[in-house]
Amino acid sequence: MKKIFLVLFLSVLGHGLFAQVRFIERFEVESELDAPLFEMIESKAGLVCFRTLPDNGLNMRRVFQYFIADKSLGSKEGVIEFPVKSGYDMLGYDIDQNQLFILFSEGYALNADKYLLQVDLETKRGLEFVIDNVLAMELVEFLVQDQKAIFMGSSDNRPVLQIHDLVTKSVHTLQGIYGNDTQILQIKKNPEVRSLEVVLSRKGAYRNRDIIINTYDMAGNVVQEVKVDQFADPGQEIIDGILLSTGNYQEAMIGAFGLERRNSYQGMYIMDINEFGEFDFKLYTLADFPNFYNYLNEKTKGKRDAEILKELDKERIPSINSIYSIRNVQQTPDAYYVYFDQYSVSNSRSGFQNGMYSPTGGYRYDRWSRMGATTFSDPYLANRFPMSSSYQTVPEYRYVSAHFAKVAKTGQVIWDNATSYNEFVTTYPEAFGEVAVVGEDFYHMYVEDHIIKLSFFRNGEKIFENQEFELGLVNEEERIRDTNLASLRLIHWYDRYFLLSGTQRIRFLNDAGADEIREVYFLTKIVVDGDLYTPEELPD
What we know:
This protein is mainly beta. Among the domains are: 32-131, no CATH class; 231-384 and 396-432, no CATH class. The chain is built from 2 helices and 35 strands. The strands form 8 sheets. Strands 1, 32, 33, 34 and 35 form a 5-stranded antiparallel β-sheet that branches. Strands 18, 19, 20, 21 and 22 form a 5-stranded antiparallel β-sheet that branches. The chain starts with a helix and ends in a 12-residue tail after the last strand.
């Protein structure tokens, strides 16, 4: 009787755990398990998903497919197709004013012919533009703003950025970028004022690195330059960062700092920039994050905390053992919610793979909103970009921990916490986890193999950590036969909703009651709810 009660209890407990992560809506497209994946981008029309794949028949042609899904993953028109010129494939994309722009290239040579497809997401009509006067470059980023295509890449091992006017066919090369010892760290569109911001890293005097934030108009003219040539104490440098708008023409840049030449990370900085380009810094070290080592067991955490106190007593800044890279910043009117990963890199010539000294220049590539061409080892892009010279070997990333903090815009740390990644290894080069901020609730979710892992914080307190959930279906009468694990992609969509996508084989019963298998690309809407977690002890 006691055994039966225990089985029933575990069944109820398992159901409660599953309820915290629910698969509520799903959209499928017929697709082979190893077929090209759909990219996703948000628009006024809804969630736009698109890809290219080989056309039927023995030819070099591909077809461009897209569909638009609403918040319930419904699609009125279904999949819409456009022909692609023979020998061409998708190289980049962006969206601007409810217009989807797809950049196609004839092969992957630097001087390959290119053209642009503009799709009106309201009328579903397409328009093609020839791109014939842009400098030959290894493309890293492609954007469109105000009917002007923006190409950022590398030419002769130097960064270059050009603006191509789709109407007048004129090309403007942005000044102050092309040069030795210069890297582009981030590009940010400002559609409200029709400008473009470029974050640069450049070697300055005494081997230090200067950070330069240039604002350009859409004719390529410099409107404003913010030069950060003095940062904190001598030897301390900005290692990475995310530039974001904070309203009223003001901005903030948040990231990691340390002694990069000594392979030492020391903490987080916030640089506030006013409308006149004036800036000041707030620095945060392990002394400001008392829960930094909360990913460790109590005994080990106690030792690390004691080591920090010893360093502080000697008036030294404690070092962070591994790479400490910012992944995401969300903001409210009064605070920032920041998310960092701690990890190490092997099979790489540079230990600072995401820093400004890395071979790829540390460019912050945003796969959720647009596509670039240097993330060769990204599993979602590897089959599309086999030509990048930036990677001689595929680096491995050993993830240690994820770190979160809520920081008031006035400066004080409201709370901080951390979770463990349990030292898993992957070749995935971008931010691995996804976060959602819902009021005072904070969720961190990621996929490892076929398991979804979720951590939940409320007011900074860790409620649970790395709870595991198997992949599921909306239709309980169907079963997952196979999942292409390399295709799985998890992103935060909005509020407490996430999107999981990939390719699967699904087993189901047909109208005759016989088993059948269908191969699909799928989008699944997931809702998380930390209130459904009720920790209980097993009965005696």
